[in-house]
Amino acid sequence: MVATRLNPYLSFDGDAKQAMEFYRDVFGGTLATHTYGEYGADQDGAHADRIMHALLETRAGLTLMGADARPGTEHAPGNAYAVSLSGDDDTELRGYWEKLSSGSTVEVPLEKQMWGDVFGMCRDRFGVSWMVNITAPQN
């Protein structure tokens, strides 16, 4: 039996392969990709090489899925979501931040916030918003 899980599923406009490979480089893990062409889901052949489904799973238990917008579907990214990384492993989370924020638009620099944690927010080169929160050590 497979456990139920909840994880981000990101949408892209033709660059899902590059984006998911970038996230694999950031987080490590195993990336599996399948194209629209592999499943015969592209009638005119214009989207055969685009990603229909990608799954990234890491040894740390992180799961990220993504795909290019379906043929004939408008890709409309927005600011209605962000992917959040949080925990107390300062080194690990700062490492993710450095890779995710490189070449991105940093909306909130990674620094100590009023609630005591270290927090930052960026929009990467693929238009995905990321939030990183490093929990302050408890006294």
Number of strands: 8
Share of helix among residues? 10-25%
Order of helices and strands: EHEEEEHEEE
Question: What form results from the Cα inertia axes?
Answer: elongated
Termini Cα gap: 40 Å
Low-confidence stretches: none
Whole-number mean pLDDT: 89
Taken together, the total number of domains comes to 2
- Structural class of the secondary structure composition? alpha/beta
CATH superfamily of the largest domain: 2,3-Dihydroxybiphenyl 1,2-Dioxygenase, domain 1
CATH topology-level fold name of the largest domain: 2,3-Dihydroxybiphenyl 1,2-Dioxygenase, domain 1
Instruction: Give the CATH level 1 class of the largest domain.
Output: Alpha Beta
CATH architecture label name of the largest domain? Roll
Work out the strand percent: 25-35%
Protein name: VOC family protein
Pfam family, one: Glyoxalase
Domain Glyoxalase/fosfomycin resistance/dioxygenase: 5-132
